[in-house]
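Forum > Structural Biology > Help requests

Title: Can anyone predict the 3D structure of Alanine--tRNA ligase?

Hi all, first post here. I have the sequence for Alanine--tRNA ligase but no way to get a structure on my laptop. I'd be grateful if someone could post the structure tokens.
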Amino acid sequence: LCGGTHVGNIGQIGMVKIVSESSVAAGIRRIEAVTGQAAEALLWQEYRNLQEIKNLLKLKADEQAGPKIKELLDEKKVLDKQLQESRLSGLLNQLSATLASAEEIGGCRIMTEQLDGLGGDELRQAAVALREQASCVAGLLCSVTDGKVFLVGFASDEAVKSKKLNAGKLVKEAAACVKGGGGGKPELATAGGKYPDGIGKAIETFVASVKSALA
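Reply #1:
Sure, ran it for you. Structure tokens for Alanine--tRNA ligase below:
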């Protein structure tokens, strides 16, 4: 073990505190450490940080912070899940109303909706639910989040079997308008893009393609 600096005896090094360890190549590990007064200062800083955490958690002197932190993280996971379910429920109520008033051609509804701020997973969950709410429906859900475009297309079983609609192909065509790509199954497909200004054109392309297939 050599740090490039040599000392007369080990006592000159004093306390050693390892701060990180990593692999730099096959069979070679990199260890970073501080020594002497710097090591003592780091330990004191870690101690103060731990005491601050324990004070925030209102822990007694002999209580460990780890179990309490784990408990809080577990609670956060539950609350995050409940929040997501609540958001999805509200979203579905909104989309159900949109679906009910959607244009209908040849007995098949055509639905599109832009929902900025939502991620691909949320759009997908909504699409899965919506395709079960009408006997024949084809739809496209869009979103711009952090400059990224998300597209999710869906088609009900009847739309796929009787009307020969294919969400995978429809979404792929729409994705080209947002300088992206994607695809999937005839029932459900996803795509991404990097050109938010093209969403309007993507929706127009999707609707035109569905109408052409239904004609």
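The longest helix spans residues 65-100. The chain has a mean pLDDT of 91.
Shout if anything looks off.
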